[in-house]
Amino acid sequence: MKIVVLSDTHGMHRQVKVPDGDILVHCGDITWDGRVHELPGINMWLSFLPHKHKIVIAGNHDWCFQNQTSLSKSYFQNAIYLHDSSVVIDGVTFWGSPWQPEFFDWAFNLPRNGPEIEKKWDLIPDNTDVLITHGPPFGILDLTLQNNKVGCEKLTTAVERVKPKVHLFGHIHSGYGKLQVGNTLFVNASNCDEEYKPINKALEIEI
Fold it and tell me: Do the Cβ atoms of 28 and 7 come closer than 8 Å?
């Protein structure tokens, strides 16, 4: 199974070359300013991509999915939208969630190291093969340009429990890349750099 991973396209998805594959995953921040009016165009773009299955989660810029959840979801006719939920494709279990520790005044923020965010990660089933979150776990592809680690400590604990084959995310643009730790492949697929230029390639993985 070939998975093509995108994240943090910030409304510039058409500027990213998307290779073919079996499954396309977008790890959030698919919109520029989080308004519903952006979604029909995004849905049309998704419809033209050749992947048999497409999975999308929201990110901290995607306000419409927090404030107008049902309406926003209704526009995604050409993708599976995951929000603290899972889908099984060809025997592989995918779980998606948009939350991250407080990061300025954005959507899907929860207090760092608080019980609220811990409860979200407690929902992740132990049989998850591919974990999709918007933000990274603490200490893994989460380093800012100021050399600060800003990933989620509680998510790290959950990943250690679940031990997914793959953990896909974005959010921290400067953390773009792949890192194998134990039996889990971590992928920060942020397409935009720190200046919000979509210069990073879509990443491909095989499972």
Answer: yes
- Burial class from Cβ neighbours inside 10 Å (0-12, 13-18, 19+) for residue 105 reads exposed
Residue 188: closest CA among 146, 145, 129, 132: 132
What's the domain count of the chain? 1
CA dihedral sign of residues 146, 170, 72, 66: negative
* pLDDT band (50, 70, 90) for residue 103: confident
What is the CATH classification number for the domain harbouring 172? 3.60.21.10
Q: Mean of the per-residue pLDDT values for the chain?
A: 97
Distance CA 128, CA 170 (A): 19
Neighbour count for residue 59 (Cβ, 10 Å)? 30
- pTM of this prediction? 0.98
pLDDT, tens digit, 9 for 90 and up, residues 62-74 = 999 999 999 999 9
Instruction: Assess contact for 52 and 23: CB atoms under 8 A.
Output: yes
